[in-house]
Design a protein that fits this description.
With 292 residues, this protein is of the alpha+beta class. It has three domains: 51 residues, Dna Ligase, domain 1 (2-Layer Sandwich); 75 residues; 128 residues, no CATH class. The chain is 36% helix and 13% strand. The chain contains six helices and eleven strands. The protein has a five-stranded mixed β-sheet. A four-stranded antiparallel β-sheet has the order 2-1-3-4. Strands 5-6 form a two-stranded parallel sheet. Helix 2 runs antiparallel to helix 3 and helix 2 runs parallel beside helix 4. It is rod-shaped. The relative contact order is 0.08.
């Protein structure tokens, strides 16, 4: 193995004889190029090494010196982490309804810019483009998905309010019956029924308010025809309306003309004198019993 001293004064090698012959053919060495055996200190011109002169040795000193021994292959370009992240966020935008789409789109754009500026040192263009495409598509679909989802959410909210409203009617209905049981079987007077049955709702007014009418005093009315009536005098309790949804008003009472839906699909909540409650329409209430 040999070492070579270039015209820049630097040492190159060690290299073998085959490599030196190759440099000779490339005119990178000439007769005056200095060589020495590895491990020795004696430099000699190439012309004094007979074993290297199988080909004519250039005598010109203008040829460039060898730069270095053959280098190990350089590592390949790295894959952009941003490009990969853009693709992952784009894919995640599908199950998250576009939530990660904006981030995937931005990362994809930044990744493409960096890949183009690094002149082959970064790769991942395909990942970035795929991430941008999926993210962009999901962002474009957001209004469509919102248009499909919002009615379903509104329906679910209305259904939840309807269930809550029905529970209120059941509580008020039970409170009126409990009041009658504690007062010789008589229902309360119409002008103070809310005040009188509040003790039977644990002192809370929550059951008096429908969630679709926040801030109202009371969202329900009492059948005025049953004021001070004894439960034993009722002819048909299962069909006799006791309490029902109505316009807001504390201690409000009245008859069929007072009944109003609470924005629950135009249905009316009604409690009956036997204790059961129904979600019904005005046409059904018109056939119910409003007298004792």
């Amino acid at each position: 193995m040999f070492k070579v001293k270039g015209q820049d004064g630097k040492e190159y090698g060690p290299v073998d004889a085959a490599q030196l012959r190759s440099w000779l053919q490339q005119n990178r060495l000439h007769a005056q190029s200095l060589l020495k055996l590895e491990g020795t200190d004696t430099w000699k011109p190439l012309a004094e090494w007979p074993e290297l002169r199988s080909n004519p040795v250039p005598t010109s000193a203008s040829a460039p010196p060898p730069l270095s021994t053959p280098a190990a292959p350089l590592a390949g370009p790295k894959t952009s982490g941003m490009a990969v992240a853009s693709l992952v966020l784009g894919i995640l935008a599908v199950p998250t309804f576009g939530l990660t789409g904006l981030f995937g789109l931005v990362l994809g754009i930044v990744a493409l810019i960096k890949i183009n500026r690094n002149q082959g040192q970064l790769r991942g263009t395909g990942f970035a483009i795929a991430g941008m495409s999926i993210s962009g598509m999901m962002l474009l679909m957001l209004p469509i998905m919102a248009a499909m989802l919002l009615p379903a959410l509104a329906k679910a909210k209305s259904r939840a309010q309807q269930i809550s409203c029905m529970n209120n009617v059941k509580q008020l209905n039970l409170a009126l019956i409990m009041y009658a049981q504690d007062n010789q079987g008589k229902f309360p007077p119409a002008d103070r029924w809310c005040d009188l049955i509040k003790q039977y709702t644990a002192g809370s007014t929550a059951a008096f308010h429908c969630r679709s009418e926040p801030g109202s005093d009371c969202s329900y009315a009492y059948n005025a025809a049953l004021a001070n009536v004894n439960t034993a005098d009722l002819k048909n309790p299962t069909q006799t309306v006791l309490v029902f949804s109505s316009d807001p008003g504390w201690n409000k009472s009245g008859g069929l003309q007072t009944a109003r839906p609470h924005h629950h699909g135009n249905v009316i909540m009604a409690g009956f004198a036997d204790g059961h409650a129904e979600t019904t329409r005005e046409s059904r209430l018109s056939t119910a019993n409003w007298e004792r």
